Amino acid sequence: MVLAHVLQVFAPFDQTSSRLSLINQDSEALLVVMESSLNLSFDSDEQSSDNYEEKAFDAFMCPLTRQVMRDPVTIESGQTFEREAIIKWFKECRETGRNPTCPLTQITLKSTELTPCIALRKAIEEWRKRREERELEKAQVHLTLVSSEQNAVAALRHVITICQRNEASKDLVRNQGLIPMIVDMLRSSNRQVRLKALEALRVIAEENDDNKEAVSEGDTIRTIIKFLSNEYFQERALAVTLLYELSTLEPLCEKIGAVYGAILILVGMASSRAENIVAVEKAESTLKNLEKCEANIKPMAENGRLMPLLKKLLEGTPEVQLSMIECLSELVLANDAKATVASKVGPILIKIMQTGTLQAREATLKALKEISSNEASSKTLIEAGIFPPLINDLFSVGVYKFPMRLKELSASILANLVNSDTQLETIAFEHNGRMVTLLSEDVVHSLLHLISNTGPAIECRLLQVLVGLTDSEASAKEVVAAVRSSGAIISLIQFIEAVHRDIRVAALKLLGNISSYMGQDLSDALGGSTGHLSSLMRVISDTNIITEEQTAAVKLLADLPEREPGLTRQLFDLGAFRTLAIKLSEIKHGVILSNRHVTIFQEGIARILCRITYGISEPDYLNFAMQYDLGTVFLDLLQTTGQDNLQIISATVLDNLSQESKNLTRVPELPPVKCCQVFSKPAPIKGLCRVHHGFCSMKETFCLLQGRAVERLIACLDHQNEQVVEASLGALCTLLSDGVDIIEGVFVLYEAEGIRPILDVLVENRSREVRQKAVWAVERILRIDDIAREVASDQSIGSALVEAFRTGDYKTRQIAERALKHVDKLPSFSSAYHQIQRA
């Protein structure tokens, strides 16, 4: 009655402040009295249970072990012993050469037969049951009243002992309602209480399905899972061990997997190198159990544990396979996971593409779209033979026509595959009864036909396929041949004005890729209608943020033949050069923010502006170049490090502009000479350019000397990129060309320390184009006798000139011959430099 009253008055274990206050203020005296009357104190872990247990009868005790017997048996002498103990006694007698005797009476026995004492065993079992019930009652009181955390730990330890001693006691624990009380202990603020509660629940649930279900009631599983993220490894280890025990009951697997974050935490723990090895093994074993529930397969795959899904896909029935493929199609996979999936189930997915139901094929295509978006997995799928079914589905017509939504998926997969850096020209497959490749003319024709006869989604994907096919030089030539033979260039150009941005971007990229092979065709097609050029310029000038579409449009215009005068005039009349010059300035001053497209965008603008300098003699172009100070703009770009193409373009522009300087310089008119001034020297005119003998500036006459560009161009002669060297040397050569003061041009190079770098360019084993320019420049430099005498002592220069004379074309040989004649006159170089005197 006292116990019942206690359970009614005091609620289950709770650490809230209100209940603790109630216990502390109103019940302290009662607790003392009750503990005294019930003799329920757990003040010491070693306290004997004799004070509150029913004493064991002497008949229950084995004379040999002095412990209560579990399997009592009677021997010939009428004495009763524990079966195991008396068997051991008889064995010892034989081993020592004695006849078996009774341990108590020492009487020699004729027989060692053992007779079970059924009545005594039942009596002991009933005594044990009464004893365990009373022990659990004591634990129940302490788990309810919680007189102290020490007593709570002792009570939990007592429950563990009872359950370990007798499996049947686990049912008694459940029937007496202790499981919810122990579960409440998991919320204790005391770490030792939590640890012992986790251990107790694990022991209670072990090999007892009813207890597993009782433990999992309510929100217990969520609470246990929270322990998996606890900072104390002991709590994590005990929690995952308990969770493993619960997971051995299959109905609970879905409940465990349904807890938000449970599978992710377990996957992380199973793969952790920092975790306790036991915890790691239990986490892995728990996941193995959870795999039995199909509902857990998807969240496992989402968290990187793909093998259960792949195993079911490989081994399951068609229905299971479809379910797994549908799960797979919804996943966003990491690149290494894509490669794993492709290698494990790629062949079966390809087989389902060919033989599966429409529903299965659709799910498969969705999965393959994700898998194929990685280069390694794409190569694996290609090797597994994905092209034949993919192409057949894409080009299917009539009765066997594939639904458009599935053709879109097929086109997306194909776009992924062609970007896999695979030599597609070597991958042959059967189509329409003969062997073809993706680059075969009829396959490309089919792609071009399909592009023009489908909806926007498929158009975009197939344009991306052609972009991928034209990314490499080898495959681009094949595609270009098919485009020419099909006359598809006009229809492809139409897509740059499509409504959908992705289609416009793909079309611009494709046209940019083939412009190197079809530049004149593209130039004629675009130039034939200013509407297309206007559309491109609208895209380029649209925003102050550089987009992928803008970059593709600029690159396309930049790749068109740069010396095509008709196209240049159209662009000029559209105001394209003005727009691009402003864009270039905005990039320089940070008005347009830098992003991943800025390098290609800036280079493209520079190349387009460069084309106007090839016709710089035209008044419109000349005024534009002066107005926007193109010389200074490109001189600044010449110093852009890490962008070789931009430096090449900049040096080329300076070369083109500088060639016009001799025509633009303003030569002063000399006043008429009076009679009295016939024999006097005219006063020198200040501010004249030494090379052009007129008034020069970078902005108005593009003079390299006045613009201080000489030193910057000389610095580029040491560049690793030969094209940068060639372009820079070409610009410097304009200081030595006909129509300027060549001697002064040489002195300008000398004063800028540019003679030796030019000679080094000649000596180094450069390309034919660089060597031709170097021979030309050196011949002009060697016209200065003092320099020629110094160079004559340098055998390497002589050898380089001889090689040019021996292997060069007719013009180069003539120039090299003149240079060799200059060299034949010379000795000392460094001293000669200091003796140079100008008039």
From TrEMBL:
Enzyme Commission number(s) from the entry:
2.3.2.27
UniProt pathway annotation: Protein modification; protein ubiquitination
Alphabetic keyword roster: Repeat, Transferase
The segments carrying the ARM repeats are: 177-219
Keyword field contains Translocase: no
Which InterPro entries does the entry mention? ARM-like, ARM-type_fold, Armadillo, HEAT, HEAT_type_2, RING-Ubox_PUB, U-box_domain_protein, Ubox_domain
Domain of life where this protein originates? Eukaryota
Ranges that cross the membrane: none
Matching Pfam families:
HEAT, U-box
Biological process (GO) annotations held by this record are: protein ubiquitination
A molecular function (GO) term: ubiquitin protein ligase activity
Q: Where is the U-box domain?
A: 55-134
Which protein are we looking at?
RING-type E3 ubiquitin transferase
User: Which organism encodes this protein?
Assistant: Rhynchospora tenuis
